[in-house]
Design goal:
Elements (H helix, E strand, L loop, with lengths): L4 H4 L4 E5 L3 H4 L1 H12 L3 E5 L5 H5 L2 E3 L6 H14 L5 H7 E2 L1 H8 L4 H8 L3 H13 L3 E5 L1 H4 L4 H14 L10 E3 L6 H6 L6 E2 L3 E2 L3 H11 L14 H7 L4 E5 L3 H4 L3 H9 L3 E6 L11 E4 L8 E4 L4 E5 L12 H11 L9 H11 L16 E2 L23 E2 L18 E6 L15 H6 L4 E4 L1 H6 L7 E5 L4 E8 L7 E5 L27 E7 L4
Parallel strand pairs: 1-2, 1-5, 2-3, 4-15, 5-6, 9-10, 10-11, 16-20, 17-19
Antiparallel strand pairs: 7-8, 12-13, 13-14, 16-21, 17-20, 18-19, 18-21
């Protein structure tokens, strides 16, 4: 997030796109509700009528895969009506003229044809966002898990920049991260092209710095992205995998392809707190301690590094992740001079500029937000307050492009996926909680009344859902929450797994799979 969770309640406009915040980030949703109680306006763009959508002043129920067209349409209205912050644009951005030309074609009527959002709602949303003195944009994987995910984020950046909402308190461009420490994992270099602190693996000076610190020679070759692993395994380029805290047999697209890849490996190691569907295929399982059984830190979605203090002992042979990895380093013949997580944090601070001032005594109670470059720095509540970090904000036009898989006579419906409030990710933890399992014990597919009638589907019956990659059986929920021609399946469940159906098409830049759009057909299970 460019801004902070505490700032959300002070927003006077909230634009939510691709996020069901009430169910996926309920703590942040509570802050949004506080803003609404003070009179803030809420704009929600989503294919489903979620809880935020029901609270919204403007609900833009768009067709999945048309986010860029909608955002460009909002920008078109703002520019054509002269509602943008001209002084900020002139002083702090480059590329505005090119953006103006690019969005000229995205009239409300044209965008309405693409998105199915009424033109008057597009105009109303644009005027409302532009009128906000404290307007925040919030998004999640509903816009990034597309073949155009990077371009969609760029479109949102364009929107925030032309309104002067970057480097400003109570506003900003705020991605809501999907897991508890995914921000921290990225910060620590759990990406194929960077060391900790997003320091490039192909920069000779950076390589030398880490070689001195770790006492080993390091490769300058960029690694393979997670979504490229399956193809690399198929080619024989990867023969062994070490999977830590990921249940890709449920969470990755085209699960049949994932299973084939894992079973073809020479060696698979899985480190996890439970024997997940992925761990069940492993040659070696390393039992890890859960969050309450170890010391360390989490870095959350607002860049806040928070202290994690062990509450109970881990059961059986389970060990903290840092202990397992340190022992592996030693057994591979290298030095791992760590007596505990605090030693590791000191090394992080020494090697990672954003974390330079973060130390255990400083985060023992509240935590600090990076960048925090030295011990005298108070942390950074919102980014770019002293000017855009790159000098001037890059306003870069992007164009709408259709999803990689479209509907046809054989697969006439659009499948989109997501989460529900009762379960977390692949249910490795929440599926073992009796009360949560009772509330949401199995997979389901949401389908609109008109679409259900069209395909002879009854509420509560078992249905067969098929894509070009596979078929599942699940339970139909007939509901007006979903658009006609669209169906929704939560991805949590191994039985009735939505990711048997999803597409492996990737964003060309970030290599994120297009989990939010796939073409499917549906029929009663008895009729398949």
């Amino acid at each position: 997030m460019t801004n902070s969770i505490a700032e959300v309640k002070e927003n006077d406009v909230l634009f939510l796109i691709g996020t069901n915040t009430a169910e996926n980030h309920p703590v942040i949703w509570y802050q949004m509700v506080r803003a609404l109680r003070k009179g803030a306006k809420l704009i929600v763009a989503d294919p489903r009528e979620t809880i935020p959508a029901r609270r919204a002043d403007m609900f833009l129920q768009l067709r999945p895969g048309t986010n860029i067209a909608l955002i460009n349409g909002i920008i078109h209205v703002i520019i054509s009506e002269g509602l943008y912050d001209a002084a900020y644009v002139e002083a702090n951005t480059t590329g505005f003229v090119e953006l103006s030309r690019a969005v000229a074609a995205y009239t409300p009527d044209y965008v309405s044809q693409i998105t199915s959002v009424p033109a008057e709602l597009i105009v109303s949303a644009a005027r409302t966002y532009a009128a906000g003195e404290r307007a925040g944009v919030y998004y999640a994987m509903g816009i990034t898990q597309h073949s155009t995910g990077v371009d969609t984020v760029q479109a949102l950046s364009n929107l925030a920049l032309i309104m002067g909402n970057i480097g400003k308190e109570f506003s900003g461009l705020n991605p809501l991260r999907g897991q508890s420490n995914v921000q921290g994992a990225c910060d620590m270099g759990a990406l194929p092209n960077v060391f900790p602190g997003y320091q490039s693996v192909d920069n000779p000076e950076i390589i030398e710095k880490f070689e001195r610190a770790w006492g080993v020679k390091l490769s300058s070759q960029r690694g393979v992205r997670a979504t490229e692993v399956g193809e690399a395994v198929g080619k024989g380029d990867i023969r062994a995998l070490y999977i830590m805290g990921e249940n890709i047999m449920v969470s990755d697209p085209d699960v049949a392809h994932v299973e084939k890849a894992l079973k073809s490996l020479d060696f698979l190691v899985v480190q996890d707190i439970f024997l997940t569907e992925t761990a069940a295929l492993a040659d070696v399982v390393l039992p890890a301690a859960c969050f309450a059984e170890k010391d360390g830190t989490f870095t959350n979605t607002e860049r806040r590094v928070q202290r994690l203090v062990k509450a109970v002992d881990a059961p059986g042979q389970a060990r903290a992740d840092w202990e397992i990895i340190s022992e592996l380093i030693r057994r591979l013949g290298h030095d791992a001079p760590y007596s505990g997580p605090e030693d590791i944090m000191r090394e992080i601070a020494a090697l990672t500029p954003q974390y330079g001032g973060i130390a255990y005594p400083r985060i023992s109670r509240v935590g600090l937000q990076w960048p925090c470059p030295d011990e005298d720095h108070p942390g950074t509540r919102y980014l770019h307050s002293k000017g855009i970090a790159r000098g001037k904000g890059l306003v870069m036009p992007v164009q709408h492009a259709e999803a990689q898989e479209l509907t046809d006579a054989d697969y006439p419906l659009i499948l989109t996926t997501g989460r529900i409030i009762y379960h977390y990710h692949t249910r490795s933890m929440t599926g073992r909680v009796e009360g949560l399992h009772e509330l949401a014990p199995q997979s389901f597919v949401e389908i609109s009344p008109a679409t259900a009638e069209q395909f002879s589907v009854e509420d509560g019956e078992t249905v067969s859902v098929s894509s070009r990659r596979g078929t599942i059986e699940t339970t139909a929920r007939v509901t007006p929450r979903i658009k006609d021609g669209v169906v929704f399946i939560p991805f949590h469940f191994a039985q009735g797994n939505a990711n048997v159906l999803t597409n492996v098409a990737l964003d060309p830049v970030a290599q994120i799979p297009e989990l939010k759009v796939a073409a499917v057909r549906i029929c009663p299970a008895t009729a398949k």
